[in-house]
Protein backbone atom coordinates (compact mmCIF):
# COMPACT_ATOMS: atom_id res chain seq x y z
CA UNK A 1 0.00 0.00 0.00
CA UNK A 2 1.73 3.16 -1.24
CA UNK A 3 -0.53 5.78 0.36
CA UNK A 4 -0.86 5.47 4.12
CA UNK A 5 -2.74 7.59 6.63
CA UNK A 6 -1.24 6.05 9.75
CA UNK A 7 -4.59 4.40 10.55
CA UNK A 8 -3.89 0.80 9.63
CA UNK A 9 -7.40 -0.57 9.26
CA UNK A 10 -8.48 2.43 7.17
CA UNK A 11 -5.52 2.00 4.84
CA UNK A 12 -6.37 -1.69 4.42
CA UNK A 13 -10.03 -0.96 3.68
CA UNK A 14 -9.02 1.70 1.16
CA UNK A 15 -6.68 -0.72 -0.59
CA UNK A 16 -9.52 -3.25 -0.91
CA UNK A 17 -11.92 -0.69 -2.37
CA UNK A 18 -9.21 0.58 -4.70
CA UNK A 19 -8.61 -2.94 -5.97
CA UNK A 20 -12.32 -3.49 -6.60
CA UNK A 21 -12.51 -0.26 -8.60
CA UNK A 22 -10.89 -2.20 -11.45
CA UNK A 23 -13.66 -4.81 -11.33
CA UNK A 24 -14.86 -7.84 -9.35
CA UNK A 25 -12.20 -10.17 -8.00
CA UNK A 26 -11.82 -13.28 -5.88
CA UNK A 27 -10.38 -13.38 -2.39
CA UNK A 28 -7.12 -14.61 -3.89
CA UNK A 29 -7.16 -11.61 -6.22
CA UNK A 30 -7.66 -9.25 -3.28
CA UNK A 31 -4.76 -10.83 -1.42
CA UNK A 32 -2.47 -10.56 -4.45
CA UNK A 33 -3.40 -6.96 -5.22
CA UNK A 34 -3.38 -5.57 -1.67
CA UNK A 35 -0.63 -7.63 -0.05
CA UNK A 36 -2.91 -8.29 2.91
CA UNK A 37 -2.89 -11.62 4.71
CA UNK A 38 -5.69 -13.85 3.47
CA UNK A 39 -7.60 -13.92 6.81
CA UNK A 40 -7.35 -10.11 7.07
CA UNK A 41 -8.53 -9.53 3.51
CA UNK A 42 -11.45 -11.91 4.01
CA UNK A 43 -12.47 -10.40 7.37
CA UNK A 44 -12.42 -6.83 6.03
CA UNK A 45 -14.17 -7.66 2.76
CA UNK A 46 -16.97 -9.48 4.60
CA UNK A 47 -17.31 -6.56 7.03
CA UNK A 48 -17.54 -4.12 4.11
CA UNK A 49 -20.17 -6.39 2.59
CA UNK A 50 -22.28 -6.03 5.74
CA UNK A 51 -22.22 -2.27 5.25
CA UNK A 52 -23.02 -2.64 1.50
CA UNK A 53 -19.72 -1.02 0.52
CA UNK A 54 -18.79 -4.37 -1.02
CA UNK A 55 -21.10 -6.87 -2.74
CA UNK A 56 -20.80 -10.26 -4.45
CA UNK A 57 -21.40 -10.87 -8.14
CA UNK A 58 -23.04 -13.98 -9.62
CA UNK A 59 -19.72 -15.85 -9.48
CA UNK A 60 -19.26 -15.05 -5.79
CA UNK A 61 -16.46 -12.55 -6.41
CA UNK A 62 -16.15 -9.38 -4.39
CA UNK A 63 -17.29 -6.17 -6.14
CA UNK A 64 -18.01 -2.57 -5.22
CA UNK A 65 -21.33 -2.35 -3.37
CA UNK A 66 -24.46 -0.23 -3.88
CA UNK A 67 -23.75 1.99 -0.88
CA UNK A 68 -20.94 3.68 -2.82
CA UNK A 69 -23.37 4.75 -5.54
CA UNK A 70 -25.72 6.11 -2.89
CA UNK A 71 -22.92 8.08 -1.26
CA UNK A 72 -21.72 9.39 -4.60
CA UNK A 73 -25.21 10.60 -5.42
CA UNK A 74 -25.36 12.45 -2.11
CA UNK A 75 -22.09 14.37 -2.60
CA UNK A 76 -22.82 17.82 -3.96
CA UNK A 77 -26.16 16.43 -5.21
CA UNK A 78 -24.05 14.51 -7.72
CA UNK A 79 -23.07 16.70 -10.63
CA UNK A 80 -23.98 14.09 -13.24
CA UNK A 81 -27.48 13.51 -11.93
CA UNK A 82 -28.04 17.23 -11.46
CA UNK A 83 -27.21 17.84 -15.12
CA UNK A 84 -29.04 14.76 -16.38
CA UNK A 85 -32.61 16.03 -15.97
CA UNK A 86 -32.53 18.91 -18.46
CA UNK A 87 -30.16 17.13 -20.85
CA UNK A 88 -32.35 14.02 -21.06
CA UNK A 89 -35.50 16.11 -21.40
CA UNK A 90 -33.94 18.00 -24.32
CA UNK A 91 -32.81 14.73 -25.91
CA UNK A 92 -36.33 13.30 -25.55
CA UNK A 93 -37.89 16.41 -27.10
CA UNK A 94 -35.34 16.47 -29.92
CA UNK A 95 -35.69 12.79 -30.86
CA UNK A 96 -39.29 12.15 -29.79
CA UNK A 97 -38.12 9.04 -27.91
CA UNK A 98 -37.55 8.08 -24.27
CA UNK A 99 -34.07 8.95 -22.96
CA UNK A 100 -32.10 7.29 -20.16
CA UNK A 101 -28.82 7.53 -18.28
CA UNK A 102 -27.09 4.33 -17.12
CA UNK A 103 -24.22 3.61 -14.80
CA UNK A 104 -22.47 0.28 -14.41
CA UNK A 105 -22.57 -1.40 -11.03
CA UNK A 106 -20.73 -4.71 -10.96
CA UNK A 107 -22.32 -7.05 -13.48
CA UNK A 108 -25.43 -4.93 -14.11
CA UNK A 109 -26.23 -1.43 -15.31
CA UNK A 110 -28.53 0.85 -13.35
CA UNK A 111 -30.90 3.39 -14.88
CA UNK A 112 -30.10 6.45 -12.75
CA UNK A 113 -32.18 9.03 -14.67
CA UNK A 114 -34.80 9.03 -17.42
CA UNK A 115 -37.09 11.27 -19.45
CA UNK A 116 -40.05 9.39 -20.87
CA UNK A 117 -41.79 10.08 -24.16
CA UNK A 118 -44.93 11.99 -23.24
CA UNK A 119 -47.44 10.09 -25.36
CA UNK A 120 -47.86 7.19 -27.74
CA UNK A 121 -45.99 3.90 -27.81
CA UNK A 122 -42.84 4.19 -25.70
CA UNK A 123 -40.08 2.21 -24.03
CA UNK A 124 -40.41 2.83 -20.30
CA UNK A 125 -37.31 2.15 -18.19
CA UNK A 126 -37.93 2.88 -14.48
CA UNK A 127 -35.23 4.79 -12.61
CA UNK A 128 -33.38 2.42 -10.29
CA UNK A 129 -33.96 -0.71 -12.35
CA UNK A 130 -30.98 -3.05 -12.85
CA UNK A 131 -30.51 -4.40 -16.36
CA UNK A 132 -27.98 -6.97 -17.61
CA UNK A 133 -24.60 -6.04 -19.06
CA UNK A 134 -25.02 -8.68 -21.76
CA UNK A 135 -27.61 -6.93 -23.94
CA UNK A 136 -28.46 -3.46 -25.19
CA UNK A 137 -26.60 -0.49 -26.61
CA UNK A 138 -25.91 1.02 -23.17
CA UNK A 139 -24.24 -2.22 -22.08
CA UNK A 140 -22.07 -2.06 -25.20
CA UNK A 141 -20.99 1.48 -24.30
CA UNK A 142 -20.23 0.64 -20.66
CA UNK A 143 -18.13 -2.37 -21.72
CA UNK A 144 -16.43 -1.19 -24.92
CA UNK A 145 -13.70 0.90 -23.24
CA UNK A 146 -12.98 -1.49 -20.37
CA UNK A 147 -9.54 -2.99 -19.86
CA UNK A 148 -8.95 -6.13 -21.99
CA UNK A 149 -9.43 -8.68 -19.20
CA UNK A 150 -12.69 -7.17 -17.99
CA UNK A 151 -13.88 -6.67 -21.56
CA UNK A 152 -13.19 -10.33 -22.41
CA UNK A 153 -15.03 -11.45 -19.29
CA UNK A 154 -17.98 -9.20 -20.08
CA UNK A 155 -18.33 -10.65 -23.58
CA UNK A 156 -18.98 -14.15 -22.26
CA UNK A 157 -22.64 -14.86 -22.94
CA UNK A 158 -23.26 -11.40 -24.42
CA UNK A 159 -25.54 -10.79 -27.41
CA UNK A 160 -22.81 -8.66 -29.01
CA UNK A 161 -19.24 -9.52 -30.04
CA UNK A 162 -15.73 -8.12 -29.70
CA UNK A 163 -15.96 -7.02 -33.33
CA UNK A 164 -19.15 -5.09 -32.57
CA UNK A 165 -17.46 -3.33 -29.64
CA UNK A 166 -14.52 -2.43 -31.87
CA UNK A 167 -17.03 -0.68 -34.13
CA UNK A 168 -18.52 1.08 -31.10
CA UNK A 169 -15.11 2.47 -30.12
CA UNK A 170 -14.46 3.61 -33.70
CA UNK A 171 -17.85 5.35 -34.13
CA UNK A 172 -18.27 6.62 -30.59
CA UNK A 173 -21.82 5.25 -30.27
CA UNK A 174 -23.72 1.95 -30.18
CA UNK A 175 -27.07 0.68 -31.36
CA UNK A 176 -29.11 -2.40 -30.59
CA UNK A 177 -32.17 -3.88 -32.25
CA UNK A 178 -34.24 -6.24 -30.13
CA UNK A 179 -31.34 -7.20 -27.83
CA UNK A 180 -32.82 -6.23 -24.46
CA UNK A 181 -36.47 -6.61 -25.42
CA UNK A 182 -38.16 -7.84 -28.58
CA UNK A 183 -39.44 -4.96 -30.69
CA UNK A 184 -37.28 -2.32 -28.98
CA UNK A 185 -34.29 -0.51 -30.48
CA UNK A 186 -31.85 1.91 -28.85
CA UNK A 187 -28.84 4.13 -29.45
CA UNK A 188 -26.27 5.01 -26.76
CA UNK A 189 -23.14 7.12 -26.35
CA UNK A 190 -20.48 7.39 -23.61
CA UNK A 191 -20.32 10.05 -20.91
CA UNK A 192 -16.69 10.67 -19.99
CA UNK A 193 -15.43 11.96 -16.66
CA UNK A 194 -12.61 14.48 -16.12
CA UNK A 195 -9.94 11.82 -16.73
CA UNK A 196 -11.57 10.68 -19.96
CA UNK A 197 -12.91 7.47 -18.44
CA UNK A 198 -16.39 6.32 -19.46
CA UNK A 199 -18.55 6.79 -16.37
CA UNK A 200 -22.06 6.46 -17.81
CA UNK A 201 -24.07 5.88 -20.99
CA UNK A 202 -26.80 8.07 -22.44
CA UNK A 203 -29.48 6.26 -24.43
CA UNK A 204 -32.63 6.81 -26.42
CA UNK A 205 -34.97 3.87 -26.95
CA UNK A 206 -38.27 3.10 -28.57
CA UNK A 207 -40.14 0.67 -30.82
CA UNK A 208 -38.28 -0.65 -33.86
CA UNK A 209 -41.21 0.34 -36.06
CA UNK A 210 -40.34 3.99 -35.33
CA UNK A 211 -36.58 3.81 -34.85
CA UNK A 212 -36.14 1.35 -37.76
CA UNK A 213 -33.48 -1.35 -37.87
CA UNK A 214 -30.78 1.30 -38.30
CA UNK A 215 -31.55 3.71 -35.45
CA UNK A 216 -28.02 5.09 -35.26
CA UNK A 217 -28.32 6.70 -38.68
CA UNK A 218 -30.96 9.10 -37.39
CA UNK A 219 -30.31 9.37 -33.66
CA UNK A 220 -26.57 8.97 -33.03
CA UNK A 221 -25.64 12.63 -33.47
CA UNK A 222 -28.22 13.82 -30.93
CA UNK A 223 -27.23 11.13 -28.42
CA UNK A 224 -23.51 11.83 -28.79
CA UNK A 225 -24.12 15.56 -28.28
CA UNK A 226 -26.19 14.88 -25.15
CA UNK A 227 -23.43 12.68 -23.74
CA UNK A 228 -20.93 15.44 -24.50
CA UNK A 229 -22.98 17.99 -22.55
CA UNK A 230 -23.05 15.70 -19.53
CA UNK A 231 -19.30 15.18 -19.81
CA UNK A 232 -18.81 18.95 -19.84
CA UNK A 233 -20.88 19.25 -16.67
CA UNK A 234 -18.53 16.78 -14.95
CA UNK A 235 -15.44 18.71 -16.05
CA UNK A 236 -16.60 22.07 -14.73
CA UNK A 237 -14.55 23.33 -11.76
Automatic annotation (TrEMBL):
InterPro entries, per database record: GAF-like_dom_sf (IPR029016), HTH_MetabolicPath_Reg (IPR050707), Tscrpt_reg_IclR_C (IPR014757), Tscrpt_reg_IclR_N (IPR005471), WH-like_DNA-bd_sf (IPR036388), WH_DNA-bd_sf (IPR036390)
Q: Which UniProt keywords apply?
A: DNA-binding, Transcription, Transcription regulation
Q: Which residues form the IclR-ED domain?
A: 67-236
Enumerate the spans annotated as HTH iclR-type domain. Answer: 7-66
Q: Manganese as a keyword?
A: no
Family matches, as PANTHER family? HELIX-TURN-HELIX TRANSCRIPTIONAL REGULATOR, ICLR FAMILY, TRANSCRIPTIONAL REGULATORY PROTEIN
Protein name in UniProt: IclR family transcriptional regulator NdgR
Amino acid sequence: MENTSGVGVLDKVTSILGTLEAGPTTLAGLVAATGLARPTAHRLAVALEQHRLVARDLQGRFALGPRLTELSAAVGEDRLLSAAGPVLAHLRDLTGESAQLYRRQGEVRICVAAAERLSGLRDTVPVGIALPMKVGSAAQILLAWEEPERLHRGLQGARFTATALSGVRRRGWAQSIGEREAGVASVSAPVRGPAGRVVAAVSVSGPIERLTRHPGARLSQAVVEAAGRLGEALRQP
